[in-house]
Fold this sequence. Notes:
Blueprint: H1 2-20, H2 22-38, H3 46-66, H4 75-93
Amino acid sequence: xxxxxxxxxxxxxxxxxxxxxxxxxxxxxxxxxxxxxxxxxxxxxxxxxxxxxxxxxxxxxxxxxxxxxxxxxxxxxxxxxxxxxxxxxxxxxxxxxxxx
Length: 100
């Protein structure tokens, strides 16, 4: 079913991202956020995706620097912990057909 396939893909992506690093995760999640914000075609989202990715990485870095709870974890781990639920939520709520 669609739910099982989506959940399986989310698990595989979640297991792969910590191994490939922060940039891979940011590159995966930022275009989805940009598409939600602008509702535009992928070819029109390059700049917005880059800015969102930079902002996500900056926020994760600031959290590690200034929140004592996160002082002993890597930035890749923090972005994966924050981004994995976001990715699962987006996969589950995204319509099967993005463009009409």
